[in-house]
Structures are given as C-alpha cells and as structure tokens.
Write a structure and sequence with these properties.
Layout (H helix, E strand, L loop, with lengths): L3 H11 L2 E6 L2 H4 L13 H4 L2 H4 L2 H6 L1 H17 L4 H8 L6 E6 L5 H5 L4 E3 L8 E2 L13 H4 L17 E2 L11 H13 L2 E5 L11 H7 L3 E6 L10 E5 L2 H10 L2
Parallel strand pairs: 1-2, 1-6, 2-3, 6-7, 7-8
Antiparallel strand pairs: 4-5
Helix pairs in contact: 1-12, 7-12, 10-11
The structure holds 2'-O-acetyl adenosine-5-diphosphoribose.
Amino acid sequence: MPTQLQTAIDHLSRAQRVVVFTGAGVSAESGIPTFRDDLTGLWARFDPQRLATPEAFLADPELVWGWYEWRRARVGQVQPNPGHTAIAQLERHVPQVCVVTQNVDDLHERAGSTRVLHLHGSIQSPRCHDCARPMQIPLADLDQLGDGQRMAPPRCEDCDGPARPGVVWFGESLPEQAWQSAWPEVQKCDLLLSVGTSGAVYPAAQLPQLALEQGAVVVHVNPDPIAVSSERELSLVGRAGEILPRLMEGL
Ligand code: OAD
C-alpha cells in the first residue's frame, strides 16, 4: 500500500494545473509567527479586535501602525525557507502553477515563485487611509519598534491622510483582482496543495473545498492532521519545510 506521501507524489507528477494555497504556517519556519497556534500565534498574544479591523485603526492609529510596522520590519529581516523554495521549484515539474496565498509577506516571490496572488494584501505596500495613494515609507529599525510600539503613521503628500498597512483587515473585502483571478485557477486546477493554514478565515478558506467539488485532488500539509472527507483528499502531517522538499524529490 503506497504511503500518503507517495500517493501525493503520484498525483502531483500527473498534474497539469496546480494551485498552491498557503497560510501563515508556510512562513513559520522563516521566523514569522502564525496567528492561531496556541502559544506562539500572534492572536494568542495580541487582540485582533484592537489591531486588525478598520475600527481599531480609527480608534488608535498609532497602536495599529506601530504593530504593523514591527511586523513589516520583521518580514524584511527573514528569508524564505525550504518550503517556499520547494513551492517555487514545482514550476519546473508542472506546466501551470499558481500560488494563492493568505500571507502578506513576499517570501514566495523571493523564493522564485512567478505567479502569486495575495488574497489578504501585502504588508510591504502601505497606502493612504483616506485617498488610497500608495506610500513609500522606509523600513523602521526593528530594535526600536519592540513588540509593536506605538508609532504615528506618516501623512499622505496629497491629502494629508494617515498611512495604513496594505493588508486586509477583518470586515474588509478581499482585493477584487486577486480574488477574481484565484477563483478560476481553483476551478480549473487538477490538484490543490493546501499548506500551513487553519482554514479559519473565509472566504479564502473555501478554496480547498471548491477544488474538491470541481474534481481536483486536495493535499494538505500541516503538522496538525487535517480531517479529510473524500478519497481525493490527503493529509500529509509535518512541517512545510520538511514535507514539501520530500514531495519535490519524488517528482
Ligand atoms: P493560522 O495561524 O490560522 O494557521 C496556521 C496553520 O499553520 C495552523 O494550521 C498550523 O498548524 C500550521 N503550521 C504551523 N507551523 C507550520 C509549519 N512549519 N508548516 C506547515 N504548517 C504549519 O494562519 P492562517 O490560516 O494563514 O488574516 O490564517 C488565516 C488568516 O487569519 C491570515 O491570513 C490572517 C489571519 O487573521 C489576515 O491578515 C486578514
């Protein structure tokens, strides 16, 4: 009887169109904390209602801006890990690969993935809160930012509005273009690889189920076993940085 890993390799080696759907877990081994892991997750230490909603920003822009600048500086310091690299290498084996990520970092791009859709925006792209003009803001020194010290957002040259992070907050719509592009990719794929996500945040979390309903194989990679509901769904238990290179070695 083939192992789950071997079965996943067999499916991947036949696939023509693959969507790699990623969450915070793929960047964990680079040193970026996830959101919902019990002890280390950001939402175990910080209250998302005070940091990740439009209301929170209006109530206390310095708190929210300082926290995101701390995270932006952290992203600037870390490197892609073997999980990101393996995902980028998939392009050598499969004709069409699209990465659909919930992550706001740029580690997939830095690892070499060429088609990456960011469903939750990008932490590297702050913009004016009032007029949406993109703003170039030099990275702050991580040591001075601590674990998210308060910081006044710079003001927009055009309208004097405050800078806001380029990420999607709870209660906001996903970037139209990324979502409109992701949907057909998932509908057409023959395999969706879901890596390092708790599947807790919708609408992104519905994509693996959509792929399954369209007849694709769905392969989950997560240290926590993922409950599967179909013969076409596989759960590979382990860290992205270990499992994904083994998948690539088998191709
Ligand atoms: P979560 O923190 O909810 O889930 C991270 C998942 O990664 C968990 O299932 C972990 O078991 C798994 N994990 C941890 N370490 C891993 C590793 N080394 N390799 C593979 N998997 C690992 O993060 P997301 O599912 O990405 O939203 O969260 C979804 C959204 O909720 C985020 O995009 C963010 C957050 O609020 C916004 O920013 C809008």
